[in-house]
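User: Can you fold this complex?
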Amino acid sequence: EIVLTQSPTTLSLSPGERATLSCRASQSVGNYLAWYQQKPGQAPRLLIYDTSNRATGIPARFSGSGSGTDFTLTISSLEPEDFAVYYCHQRRNWPLTFGGGTKLEIK
Amino acid sequence: QVQLVESGGGVVQPGRSLRLSCAASGFTFSSYDIHWVRQAPGKGLEWVAVIWFDGSKSNYADSVKGRFTISRDNSKNTVYLQMNTLRGEDTAVYHCATETSGWPDYWGQGTLVTVSS
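Assistant: Here's the predicted assembly.
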């Protein structure tokens, strides 16, 4: 099973700042990595797929990069609605797995 | 618009069974794979199972393999998750999701399963 480790667990930033979230895989996932955003009481929302492609309707301030085992989600300038939990997800190997999540909170 | 609605959750005793349903609308259901993903209270996301668009294949997380069975009825636009020999650690909100983009991109709001005596 591919283990995805996200860091940091919690990230405290202010609106307008840049957020950098990390996801490290225990073995290569190629570019088969996605990022999701989840707010309390809501279903997850797909942000980025195949490492760097924004999903439909996702603002340009969200970007993804990386390959192999190291991936990054960057939010260029935080908006109030961006404070949430973010998960990475791989579909390179069965079983599919999610990272443990990074909580992005307002400083 | 794409809509997925889960049902069938509830309180069940350890060792018993439960069947969840996921009713879909707003897209060509028979063309897309469907996933189940769960989230224990206060915890992260855990992928559970997937079924191919035509029902020909399925895959499971190790934690549920041999206990859970995913199936679908394309004539009813519905996917099912049969959960047997339930354990306390199966307590979670269960979401179904479709992958119109190759990734789970449309999700239902989920149904809560509580395994407790």
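The radius of gyration of chain B is 13 Å. The interface with chain A takes residues 35, 37, 44-47, 50, 59-62, 95, 97, 101-105, 107-110 of chain B (CB under 8 Å).
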